[in-house]
Amino acid sequence: MTLELNTHFGIKDELVFREDASGLVVAQINNALCSAELSLQGAHLMSWHPKSQSVPVVWLSRDTRLAAGKSLRGGVPVCWPWFGAHATESIFFPGHGFARTVPWRMIESATLPDGATKLMLRLEASDKTRLQWPHECTVELTVIIGETLRMELSTANTGDSDFVLSEALHTYFKIGDISAVRVTGLEGCEYWDMVGGSNLWKQQGDIRFDGEVDRVYVNTGAACVIHDDLLKRCIHIAKSGSQATVVWTPWIKKAARMGDMGQPDGWREMICVESVNAMENVVTVAAGVCHTLMVEYRVESI
Questions:
Q1: Is residue 286 within 8 Å of 259, Cβ to Cβ?
Q2: How far apart are CA 142 and CA 221, in angstroms?
């Protein structure tokens, strides 16, 4: 399989496909601007390290491992066609949908004029996925990997009737220490506090962290910034086609229960700021229409 992928999509000295010890295929990118890895299972971006930065920008747990049908802890999981628990079949269907644990097919690769690498992947439907999602559609992820990182998750409704979906690009960011970062851009936005009893609150000032945080900010397409004084950088997050943002850190007790956060202190070195359509911001995709969730990340040294 890797021979065929390298023949059709490989780019000399820039893009190589290799088989992991698990037997799954990983795309390795090393261009003039950055290095990165992406698993074809789940179209899961595992790492992104601009060469202008001393440490990666996307965080991957040291304890996570590739395994067929299993999700990774870290990177950028693609949550689709639902975010969180399934509305009616949470016992039988996986949380955050099936897209992050099934094969995706490479359909395009290219070197762009600025030196970035472009990958396009398409979700592979199967009898198992059709049982969970019976709607006719084409799902593609475009990833442009360079000094900035751009991701576009497109869902084209190819059937005869509308459908409703929820989704997320569930990005984990590498930070110096969770207690020393703050997130701006969501001031004045309403959010559901999933830790404090699913209450609706309004954000006052910057978001700072001294315990578990799991918030769904709704009705907002605002750009966000992660301010990291320890790593002396700001991570800028701009999006379109998304009207909700999730901010999440598990903190000590929840991280210990999860078991794959890179114990004992991996949880301190990550934060999730996720571009989402969920809760009151689910998306109705009309027949014949394509919906795209786009997010772009860039890093500014301070």
A1: no
A2: 20
DSSP code of residue 6 = H
Full-model pTM: 0.97
pLDDT digits (tens, 9 = 90+) for 68-122: 999 999 999 999 999 999 988 888 898 999 999 999 999 999 999 999 999 999 9
**Residue 58 and residue 5: Cα distance in Å, rounded?**
25
Residue 170 annotated as catalytic: yes
Which of 37, 152, 167, 274 is labelled catalytic? 274
**Counting every residue, how long is the chain?**
302
Q: Residue 106 phi/psi, 5° resolution?
A: -65, 135
The residue segments making up the domain with residue 72 are 2-301
- For strand 199-202 and strand 190-193, is the pairing parallel, antiparallel, or unpaired? antiparallel
Bridge partner residues of 235 (DSSP): 226, 299
274 is catalytic: yes
Q: Are 276 and 167 in contact (CB under 8 A)?
A: yes
**Total count of domains within the chain:** 1
pLDDT (tens digit, 9 = 90+) per residue, 219-267?
999 999 999 999 999 999 999 999 999 999 999 999 999 989 988 899 9
CATH at residue 83: 2.70.98.10
| Chain-centre distance for alpha carbon 217 | 17
Give which of 153, 87, 144 is closest to 285, Cα–Cα: 153
Contacts of 109 (CB under 8 A, 6+ apart): 9, 10, 11, 15, 117, 118, 119, 120
Pick the catalytic residue from 44, 49, 96, 170. Answer: 170
